[in-house]
Amino acid sequence: MPDAPRLTIPAGTRFGYREGLPWQRRDRCLASAPEAIDIGPGLHLFVAPNGSGKTTLLRSLAGLLPFLEGGAVPPSGVHYVADELRADPELKPLTFFRSWFQGEALDLARSLAQTLRLDLNQQIGRLSRGNRQKVLLILAEVKAVFTRPGVLLMDEPLTGLDVETRAQVADLWASSAASMVRLVILHELESVRTADSLLSIHGGKLLHSRECRGGSWLATYQSLQA
To answer: How many structural domains comprise the chain?
Structure first.
């Protein structure tokens, strides 16, 4: 049996971006990890103020941006889900899913669309932000089931969703908690009842808490920002 996937960010890792002209590049560090962070299978929340570097870290973990120093040690198979669907606006969700899936995978996409109340025959360009987000969520969940990535990185996947749908998505995440490391940027902490840890950024430092403090993950986040 293969070992359970883990994501490790060594102490001293710095992430951000390089700015300036090509011959005068300067590093702009957004945050660094003062201590090593090691997370295993389950749901791990990533909550921090806007502009603090959340998306930059996820893109670095996915290999889309270089770390400024150090770097994470992910297992093989990392999937990154961006914060917004990018697809031909004239496509219908059903056509979109057919371009990705067939057989059992397509059946699962249809089933999830029914669960999340997504109209598969409405053009993507005419869908609300929340319904476009459902298309992206279904794409991510079906790919996760059939390709089994070690790490699934999700950038604000609950944006635009109503309260009921957020709860349904949280239940989907809970059902797959043992199979992968799921690191999710979000602000809707009230929608998630069960998680394994919370990461945040405060004062240029990447912080991590495995303990749910004060009875909620919102209180945990507030304690890390104090």
So the answer is: 1
